Amino acid sequence: MKNSHTDSRGLTFWIILGLAGFVLFSILFNRFHYSAEAPITYSKEKTLSKTSELYADLGIESDTLSTVIFRHQRSPLYRAIRDSLENESPTPAQLNAQGFHLHGWDVISASTLGLTDSFTFSPRPIFESYGFFRTQYDNSGRITNFQAKSDRGASANVDGENSLETAQHIIEQIFGHELEGYEQTDISVDEVAPRLDENAVPVQRLDTPQITSTFRWARPAGSYREYIELELSSVPASDTGLSDADAASIVSIERFEAWHEMEKIPPKPAEDYFVILFISVIALLALFTFIEGLGQVFKGKADWRRIFFIALAVTIGIYGWRLIFLLNFTDLLTVQANLVVQFNQLVFGLVMGLFASVAYIGWEAHARSEEKYEMNLIDAYWRGKLYLKETGGSIIRGFSLAGVMLGITALFLTVSGLFMMNSDSQFGFTEVINRPQFLSINLSMFIVAALASIAMVGIVYHFFRKRIKNPHIVMAASIVVGGAVFTGLGRSFATTGSELNELVLFIMLAVLLFYTYRATGVVTVFSAFWLYSSIITIMPYIGSPSFDVSVTGWLQIVLALSVLLFGIVAWRKGPSISTVRNYVPEYEQKMRRNIRIENEMQIARESQQRLMPHAPLKTNHYELQGYFLPSFEVGGDYFDYVEAEDAESGTHLTLTVVDVSGKSMRAAMQAVFTSGLLRSRMYTDQPEDILREISPVVYDKTDSRTFITCVIGRYEPASRTLKLANAGHCMPILKRNGKAEYLRTPDPKYPLGVRPQVRYKELLIKLQPGDLILFYSDGFPEAVNENGERIGFERARRYVEEMDSGDLSAREICTQIKSYVEDFSVERLADDTTILCLKIV
C-alpha cells in the first residue's frame, strides 16, 4: 500500500479528473440526451388522474377494465427524422424546446388477461390484442393520440351532433388543443357497417349503417405542418336506448390524433443485431463464470455462508425489483395469471442468485490467491467493518471514475452525433412507473453494480489472467470481451446508434474499468458503476416542474452525496485495514490443515522408511527379505534386522516386526522411539531380555491409548535354532514340508505399553533346511475385499501352506504375498502391511 502522502496526491488526481468529467457531462447534456430541455413534466399518478378525468368527459365506464401505463420514448421517430433530414435534422433538445416532444405517457385500458392469454410488457401488443382504449400524452401533458376499439364494443360518447362544431368543441374542451392558427383541410364522411369482433363486449347489432366523419386541421410548423385529426361516428339509437331524435345528438369518438408531418416519415429498415449480441454475451459471461466459479467449488475453495448470503440477497433483490415492476400489471392479470408470472420471476431471481454466488466464488478465490489488501477489505465488510480509510479512498476514486465515465460518454455521443435515451431494464424505461420509486432504483442500481464489478469485470479479467501470461494481452482481451458484455448486459441506457457504435463506446469505458480494477480493486469499480448508472437513470427527473417527479432525482443525489461524505470522512478519520485482524475462510483453514496433515504424513512415511533396512540378506545359511506395503494412512509398522557376532553363539541374525497403534505422525514417532530402544539391544541381547528391558520404558513414555506389538526372533545358523519372544504381535508362520503352522510363544504376551513389568518368555525352535518362517503385521490377515470380507488368520495360514514356495526365493515369496494382499483388497489397504520372510538354506 502507498503511504499517506502518496495516497493523498493520487486521490487529488482522481478528484480533478472526476470533476472535469462531471462538468463535461453537464455542459454537453443538451446535445445528446432525449430529455434535454424537457424533463418529465407529469408523474404517473397525475397522468392516470388526467386519464380518469378524460374518461369521465367521454362517458367511459372503466370499472370493468384494467389500466396500465407506460413511458414511451419515440426513438424510431427520431431515427426516421435523422435519416430523412441527415445533417439538417434538429437535435432532441431543439425538438423538445419547440414542443415536439420525444417522450411521454401511454395509458391503455384493456380486458383482464387469463392463463391462456399471451402477455408481454409492451403497450402496442397489449392494446392490439386486448385493449379497449389507448391514450397517449406528450411530455407537456397534452393528449396526442386517443383510440377506442369499437370492434370490441368500446365507445367514447359525447353530446353533440356529427358536425364540425361538435368536433371543434371536442378538440378544444376535451383534448385540450387550441385550434387557433389551424386551418380546416378536410372533412370526409363514410357510411360503414357496424364493426364488432367475436371477442367484443355484447351489444345489440343493427342493420342500419353508422355515419363516420373524419375532420382534419393543419397549421404551418417551419418547413413542415402540424395536423389535428378527429374521427367521429354517429351512435345508433339502439345502442343508447334513446329515441332516434335523442340519439342523433350523441356521437362516438373513434380516434383522435395530433401529429407533426415529420412523424409520418417512414423509417429506414434497420437490421437489429442486439438480440444476437444479447444472447451471445449472456452465454459467454455464463461460461466464464461457471468455469471459474465451479472450478473453485470442486477445489473446495468456497465459503458457503457467504455464498448462501449472496444467493439469497441477489434473489431477493432481483425478485423484489421485478415484484415492484409487476405491481403495475396486477389489475391486468387474473389471480391465476399473476401467480404464474410471479413464480416465473421468482425462478429467474433464483437463477440469478445462483449465478451471482458462483461468480463470487470464482472472484474471491482469485482475489485471495493474489493476496491483495483488497481481499482484506472485503473480509472486513463481511464482518461489518465499513468505516475504514481504504473504504473512503475506494469511494472517492469510484465516484471520480464515474465522473470520467460520464464525461467520456457525453463526449463520444456528442462527437458521433448520437443521442441517449433511458433504458434501465430489459423492459425499457421502467423506473419512472415503479413504486416505491426510490427503492426500485436502488435495488436495480445496487444489483447491476455488484454483478458488473464482480462478474463482468472481475471474472472476465481473472479468466484471461489465469490462462495468458502476457499482461498486455490479458488486458486487451478483457477490455474487448468486457466491452461486449457491457453493451449487451451492463448498461442503463440505449442510443440512436448501431450496435457497433455502442460497442465502441463501451469498450472505451471498459478501458477505464479494467485498468482501475487492476490498480485499485473491485470496491472502486462497484462505486463507479453504481454512481454512473444512478446519474444516467435520474437525468430525466432533474429539473421537472413536478415535485412528485423531481423528488426522486434529488433523493438519489442526496444519497450519492451522503455516500461521498461517508467516504471522505472515512478516508480522513477512519482506521486502516491493517488494524483489522486478517480473516481466514473456513475452506482455507481446511486446506491449510490438510496441507499440514499431508506434511505430517509425509514426514511419517519418511520416518518409517528410514527405520527399515533397504538391502536383503542372503548367506550360505539363510535368505531374508522384507517388504513394507503402506496403506492410505500412515501407521506405525516397521521391520528391522541386524547381523552380529559374539563369542558364545558366533554369528547370529536378530530380526523384529513392530506395529504401533494409531496413525500418522503420532504412530510414526512412537515407532522411531521404539526402534531406538530395540536396535541398541538387538546386537547383543536375547529376544525375551530385550522385551523385558524396554517394557518399563515404553510404558512410561506412552499414554493409555497407545500400545506397541512386537515380535523378535534370533536365529543362530551354527545350531540352526530360532528363539522367539512375542509382545502381543501376530504369531509367525512356520512352513515345513508343505505344512504351515503358527508359532505360539509362551504367555504372557502383553503388548508393550500395557503393563510396566512383563516377564516375557522365549520359544526355542530347531529349524531345518527348506523351512520358511513368515513374520508379518496385522495388515496381512486384516486386508478387506469389496464385500467387506477379511483374509483372516486361517486363510492367511492356508495361503502360505498352499503356496509353491519350495523353489522360490525369499524375495519371490514376499512379492507373491504382496500381490495377493493387493489383489484381495481391490481399492486400498485397511492398514499398513509388513512382511518379513526368513528362508533356511
Features:
single chain, 841 residues, alpha+beta, Phosphatase 2c, domain 1, 3 domains, nine-stranded antiparallel β-sheet, 23 helices, 49% helix, elongated, disordered N terminus
Shape call: elongated
Low-confidence stretches: 1-6, 194-208
Q: How many helices?
A: 23
Question: How many separate domains?
Answer: 3
What's the helix and strand layout?
Layout: H1 4-32, H2 44-57, E1 66-73, H3 75-85, H4 92-97, E2 103-110, H5 123-130, E3 131-138, E4 143-148, E5 157-159, H6 164-174, E6 183-192, E7 210-221, E8 224-234, H7 237-240, H8 244-247, E9 250-260, H9 274-298, H10 304-326, H11 335-369, H12 373-382, H13 389-416, E10 420-422, H14 437-467, H15 471-488, E11 493-495, H16 499-520, H17 522-538, H18 547-573, H19 586-611, E12 617-618, E13 622-629, E14 636-646, E15 650-660, H20 664-682, H21 687-701, E16 708-716, E17 721-727, E18 733-736, E19 739-742, E20 763-766, E21 772-776, H22 792-802, H23 810-825, E22 833-840
Antiparallel strand pairs: 1-2, 2-3, 3-4, 4-9, 5-9, 6-7, 7-8, 8-9, 10-11, 12-13, 13-22, 14-15, 15-16, 16-17, 17-20, 18-19, 18-21, 21-22
Helix pairs in contact: 1-13, 9-11, 9-14, 9-15, 10-11, 10-14, 11-14, 13-16, 13-17, 13-18, 14-15, 14-17, 15-16, 16-17, 17-18, 19-20, 20-21
